[in-house]
Design goal:
The chain is α/β, with parallel strands linked by helices and 253 residues long. It folds into two domains: 125 residues, 3-Layer(aba) Sandwich (D-Maltodextrin-Binding Protein, domain 2); 100 residues, 3-Layer(aba) Sandwich (D-Maltodextrin-Binding Protein, domain 2). It is built from eleven helices and 13 strands. It has a five-stranded mixed beta sheet with strand order 10-9-11-8-12, sandwiched between helices. The chain has a three-stranded parallel beta sheet with strand order 5-1-6. The longest helix is centred in the last third of the chain and has 16 residues.
Length: 253
C-alpha cells in the first residue's frame, strides 16, 4: 500500500508540474537585464518575460549566455527564447524569428566633454570607438566607420568598453542610450562625458526596436508569446513594470 501511495503521489506531482520555458540572456545590459548582488537576474525585460510566462502558465528558467553567441545557442536548443535586448533587423531575421516589439530606445555614442567629436565618420577618423561585441552597434560601426580610418574595438561586455573609455584607451563608446544614461552618464564617473550628436540612425541595422527571439520552426511558441505580450500591454502590466525602471514609455512609437 505504501508503494502504491508513493506512486500515486509521484503521478500527481508529475501531472501538476508547471511546464518550463528556458530563456537565454546575457545579464550585462542594465536596466534591461543584469545581475543583482545576490546573483538573481533582474531587469525590465526580465520582469516583462516573467509576466508573459505567467500569462502562458509556464515557469521561466534562465540560462546565461554571452550575447555574441546567443543566436547559435538558441539554434542549438540550449534554451527556447532569447531575452536579451536584441534589436530586430533583417540580418538577424534571416537566422531566427522575433515576437512583436518589446521596447524601442535609440542607440547613442558617448564621448568626453569638450572633445568636439560627433557620430560622423569624418569626425572620428583616427579615433578608437568601442562597443559590446555581436551587437547592432558593432554592425553600425563596421558599416559606417571601419573603412573610413576609424578603429572599431568590440568588447565582451559594455562595462569593459566604458572602463577603457575612462582610461583613455577609447575615444567613444556606442550602446543603447538608456543603458549609457543609467549606467554611466548619471553616475559620478560619467560626469566628464556626454552624448555625441547627431543621433545614430540606420533602419537596416536598428530596425523597429528590440524583441524576444525564437527558432524559425517554433511558430506556435512565437504566437503564444505574442498573445501574452498583447495581454500584458492591454491589462496595464507592461506599463506598471516600465514605471519601475523608466521615467518615460520605453515601448516607443
Amino acid at each position: 500500500m505504501k508503494k502504491l501511495w508513493l506512486l500515486g503521489a509521484l503521478v500527481a506531482l508529475t501531472l501538476n508540474a508547471q511546464p518550463v520555458l528556458k530563456l537565454g540572456t546575457d545579464p550585462t545590459f542594465a536596466p534591461f537585464e543584469s545581475k543583482a548582488p545576490n546573483g538573481e537576474i533582474v531587469g525590465f525585460e526580465i520582469d516583462i518575460a516573467k509576466a508573459m510566462c505567467e500569462k502562458m502558465g509556464v515557469k521561466p528558467v534562465w540560462v546565461e549566455n554571452d550575447f555574441d553567441t546567443i543566436i547559435p545557442a538558441l539554434q542549438a536548443k540550449k534554451f527556447d527564447v532569447i531575452v536579451s535586448g536584441m534589436t530586430v533587423n533583417d540580418k538577424r531575421k534571416q537566422q531566427i524569428n522575433f515576437i512583436d516589439k518589446v521596447f524601442h530606445t535609440p542607440g547613442a555614442m558617448v564621448v568626453k566633454k569638450g572633445s568636439g567629436l560627433t557620430t560622423l565618420a569624418g569626425s572620428l577618423k583616427g579615433k578608437n570607438v568601442g562597443m559590446q561585441q555581436g551587437t547592432t552597434y558593432e554592425q553600425y560601426a563596421r558599416k559606417w566607420y571601419a573603412d573610413k580610418g576609424v578603429t572599431v574595438t568590440p568588447y565582451k561586455t559594455p562595462d569593459l568598453a566604458r572602463e577603457d573609455l575612462m582610461a583613455g584607451r577609447l575615444d567613444a563608446v556606442m550602446d543603447d542610450s538608456v543603458v549609457l544614461e543609467t549606467n554611466f552618464l548619471a553616475k559620478p564617473e560619467g560626469k566628464d562625458y556626454e552624448f555625441a550628436k547627431p543621433p545614430l540612425h540606420d533602419d537596416s541595422i536598428f530596425g523597429i526596436g528590440a524583441a524576444f527571439g525564437v527558432r524559425k520552426e517554433d511558430t506556435a511558441l512565437q504566437q503564444k508569446l505574442n498573445k501574452a505580450l498583447a495581454e500584458i500591454r492591454k491589462d496595464g502590466t507592461y506599463n506598471k513594470i516600465a514605471k519601475k525602471y523608466f521615467s518615460f514609455d520605453p515601448y516607443g512609437d
